[in-house]
Specification:
By secondary structure, the chain is α+β, with helices and mostly antiparallel strands. Helix content is 40%, strand content 12%. It contains 7 helices and 4 strands. Helix 3 crosses helix 4.
């Protein structure tokens, strides 16, 4: 931002030029990951006052968000393969889908971390009671059947990206 000059009428503070600030009509409207939702951005109106302006998105931000979601999708795919190979319980897959680690899930469930860690082992997971499974399912926003059988859960979709056309 360019500094204009010392302005004694503004309490002796330096004033700044508004030439580098985004005007209301310049707010980006690039559709992306928000899937039609708007985010609020500050912009300067014709009178030079800050105003909240809705924005559909900004291409550089959309690209970085897509890249982040691709990393999450890869982690979910890795967790799916580990479950199918029998190395971990289906709980690991659902934790990856919800971007949770053992400590976070334990905190939300009100359980010690070591207990959630045990439930990530297939043998322990298969011993969970119906109420325990129901609590996990509710926390992970899934059904008990999907919690136990990940083949009932579809592939993870990256928000805002067309499934048939994402050859970036």
């Amino acid at each position: 931002m360019n500094l204009n000059s010392f302005n004694p009428q503004r309490g002796g503070r330096l004033t700044t030029s508004r030439q580098n600030e985004m005007r209301e009509d310049e707010v980006p409207q690039d559709q992306g990951i928000a899937e039609g939702l708007k985010e609020v951005t500050y912009a300067v109106d014709a009178a030079g006052h800050y105003k909240l302006v809705p924005s559909a998105g900004w291409e550089p931000k959309n690209i970085s968000n897509y890249q982040a979601w691709e990393v999450v999708a890869a982690q979910v795919a890795t967790a799916r393969q580990a479950v199918l190979a029998g190395r971990v319980s289906p709980l690991a897959f659902h934790m990856a889908r919800n971007q949770m680690d053992t400590a976070l899930l334990a905190q939300y469930m009100g359980l010690p971390r070591w207990r959630v860690w045990l439930h990530l082992r297939p043998w322990w997971f298969n011993r969970l009671t119906a109420p325990q499974l129901a609590n996990y399912a509710a926390m992970l926003r899934t059904t008990i059947a999907q919690l136990q059988d990940i083949s009932l859960v579809g592939e993870m979709q990256i928000p805002g990206r067309d499934r048939n056309n994402h050859a970036d």
